[in-house]
Structure formats: C-alpha cells, structure tokens
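Annotated sample (chain length 440).
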Amino acid sequence: MLQSPRTTSLWPAHANAAFWGLGNGLTSTTLATYLARELGAEGLAVGLIVASPNLAGILRLAAPPLLRSIGSRKTFAIATFSLSGVLLLLLPMLAWPGLMPAQAVSLTVLVTLWGLWHLAMFLGVISLWSWFGDLVPGEVRGKFIGRRQGWLMAGQVIGMLAAGLFAYWLARAMPELPRWQPLAFPAMAGAVCMLLAVIPLVALPNVPLDRRQIGRVSDGLRALTDRRFLPLLGFWCWAGVANGFSQAAQGLFPFALGLPVLAMLALQAGMQVGQAGASPTIGRWADRLGSRRLMMGSQILVSAALLFYVPATREAPYWIVGAWILWIAYAGLNVCLPHMMLRLSPGENSPPYIATYFALGGLATAISSVVFGAAFDALPRDWHVTLGSARIDRFQLFFLGGFALRLSAIGWLWFLPDGPRASVSANEFAPPLTRTSAGD
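Output written by the structure step:
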C-alpha cells in the first residue's frame, strides 16, 4: 500500500539531496579535468573524462535484474550510494601523479575510478527514482522534484564556494603546487558528505515492489517501442549527442582563455544559485501546466548559451558569463525530464523504463564526446575558415555546431503529451504491466 503524503515526511529525501549536492560541489569535474591536464591529457582524454561516466553508464541496464535479485529499492539505493562515496574517496589518492609508475597508468586509474564512481551512483539513481515514483503522489510530484532539485543545487553551491575559496587560499599560500592539488582535498571531503547523504534515506519508508515485474528483457525493450515514451527517449539521446559535440571544446576553452579555477567555479556556483531558486517554482508549474512547454523553453535557452562562447577571447573573456546565465534554464530540464519520465513509465515506477532512459541517453553523450573530442584534436590548433568577414576557428566551429544540434533536439518534444495530468495510462499502444502489492 502506498504511503499517504499526510503520513510520510519527504524531508529525508531533501536532506539526502542537500548532502549529496554538497559532496558534488566539493568534487567538481574541474578537478578531473585539471588533474588530467597535469597528466598530459589533450582533447581525446578530456572527452574520455566527460564520457567515461556515461560509457560505464550503459551498465545501468543491469539495475532491474539486480533489483529483482535484491528485492528492495531502499536497500539497493543505500548500498550503491555508499559504494560510490568510497570510490570517490579513493580517486584522488590513487590517481595522484607520481604514485603510479607512469603518467599513462595514473591517467588510466583516474578515468577508471571516475567511471566506476559514476556507475555506482547511476545504479542507485535508478532505484531512487523508482522508489520516489511510488512514494510521492503524482499530483504533487513536480513540486517534490522541484524542491528536491533546489536543495541539491543549494548544496552544490555551498560546496563549490567552499572548494573554490580553499583552492584560492592554498594556491596563494603555496603557489608552487600544481593547479589540481588544491581541489583534491575538498574532493575527499566531498566523498565524506556523499556518504553522509545515505543516512537520511534510512528514515524513508520502504515501498512494496513486485519483483516479478522487473528484470525481464522484454520490459526494457518495450520502452523502445512505446509510442508515448519514445519521443522522450529520442529527445534525451539527441540532446546527449548535441551536448557531447561541444564537450571537449568547452572543457579546454577556459585554458585557451587563461581563466583560473576560481573563476570557473564562481561561474558554476552562480548558475546553480539561479537553478536552486528557480527549481521549486518550475516544479509547481509542471504540476499545473505540464512539462512539455517548459522543456521547450528551457532547451531554447540552453542552446543559445553556446553563442556567448563564440566572441570570447583572452582580451574579452567576459562574454562567456552570458552563457552561464542562460544555463540557469537547465533547471527546467532537470525538473521536467524526470517528471515526464515517471509520468510516462508504465505503472509510474518501472525500473526497466527508467534504466533504458538513463542508459541510452548516457551512451549517446559518451559516444558523441569521444568521437567529437577526437575530431577536435584532429584539427590543427591554428585551423580556421573565413566566411565573408568572419573568421571561425576550431573552438567556434564546435560551439556553433553544438548550438544547432541542441536547438534541433526540440523537435522531439512536439510529440510528447502535454497538460497538467498527474499520470498517463500505462500505455495506450501496448498492454500495461500488471502490478500487485507484493512486498519487497
């Protein structure tokens, strides 16, 4: 029997988000990027840093059968999130330059642990979303997701500011240190915060799960032929390709502009402050108006953000501030995508649908990041093309292409159902999954 919202407190879920966000803020991708650069990485390696979580993430398809064998989403989420915290704690220790016999070995350790950390986290996320899908009533689910996303972003802001200030202080106190080392110590503190984030999950009630309805290959394949779910899956994969197209260029551009770590962390923190403030309101709008139009508007803004990277130079790096302001609109996608995912999944909480959604979208991002990272490397550093009076270099080429691809992803959203309905019948075009009250 599902828990009543009057008897179930959802604050532990928000506390989990706050601690997890704090840990994520203390451990930014900037650490991995700067550490990889210290180990001699170029565009392809940076693309692998970005892609490795999603390359490993295809194994998220294993979550449903694992859930079936364990039988409890709560137990599975606690176990996988605990493992991810331990892996993150080990990452800066084992990838420390000079510890391994060669830089190539250190870089391999970095990429491997980075991917395994994300894999453990991703497996937990599938269980968590399925669990929340049953725990939170459909009519207030957008409000819940928006509020939780707000706490997550608030934690990330605090973590990023703390990491940035510590890195700035340590870099000034010990200027001989490489740029990545001041970020390593906050990362280990972030791992501790992520382990603490597991504790609030213990206080949430376990929701019964019919073990017979998960772990079947046919359930995962059904998501690929479900005409309600397919447009959402198509958008997620297309957006992944579009994001991966410019990932390597975006990751290396701060080095080309000569921007310090603190400046990049400040931009990320500012963006996430905006997202933290906007997310609860977006969640309420999703409950009242539906998610489709909100996602369309958000995708237009996040696409246009790349245009601010085009005129940025060492003499005028301030142009990229406009991009980070527009990327506040990611709040709309971060709230509405899971809202729509749960709405369109059969029974509102199907782990196979959720696993397929995350795995294929992550794979699209990973392949795109690696392929276009290699393509970026293949262009000479002085490559450029002249169109009339405009001179386009290799960075600008990938920013403009990324803008066009991101904008074109909106076409998939036209085919999604719209409106404020809390739920959709399991599937109008395929028989719904049978659900029972079998216990975990």
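Annotation: Strands lie at 384-387, 390-393.
Annotation: Residues 1-7, 422-440 have pLDDT under 50 and may be disordered.
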